[in-house]
Amino acid sequence: MPRDLSKLKGCVAVIPAAGVGKRMQSKLPKQYLKIKDRSILGITLDKFLSFSPVKLIVLVVSSHDTLYKNLREIENEKIIIIDGGDERIHSVYNALCYLYDNGLADKTPVMVHDAVRPCVSHQDLQKLLDAFKSSQQPCLLTAPVVDTLQSVNADQQIESLVDRSKIVRALTPQMAQFIQLKKSIESVIDNKTLITDEVSALCLNGYQVNAVTGQSDNIKITHPDDLALAEFYLEQQI
User: What reaction does this enzyme carry out catalytically (predicted)?
Assistant: First the structure.
């Protein structure tokens, strides 16, 4: 349903949830798997619904998805649901086009967050937002790498030690002004550049992106073992 977003004050969150999660070895898309009695996607949505600076959430789902209708969280008026694309980047772009068509102001802060990162904390969301407001530059949450890193060749033979002091784990949300994000993603799609996150698009288009150190428990649920770990982290947060 169209909305007039020209006067929206606050932050917009885009949550792409159109994937199928093949590595989870499940018949259900991984965002609908349960942690105790709640779906991963439901927990993620609740984190953003209860974070007051976020005034609108654009949830992007597959055009064939009917499972989202069972989520109690989608009844909230803050949530807009639109169809996704072939890849994650296309789903995010669909959300940005919706925002553009409905008049969102160019400088509005937009966060993009993985649907299957339900452990993100309000503390980290606020930390990211504060860093963005302070620098007026794109930002992303990161976590330090604690393991020793080795570079290997095609035969899985060790080639060299990687300096981990210059490496971070790229987490989400990733954040920028709306128009910066839209133009950057539009550019990589037009150039058929394969990327897996928004920061890559922003960097390729010449923007300086700041890393904001967040909590390492902001994990992406990808493999079956991650469900138990996410449950543990969520219990610790409570």
Answer: 2-C-methyl-D-erythritol 4-phosphate + CTP + H(+) = 4-CDP-2-C-methyl-D-erythritol + diphosphate
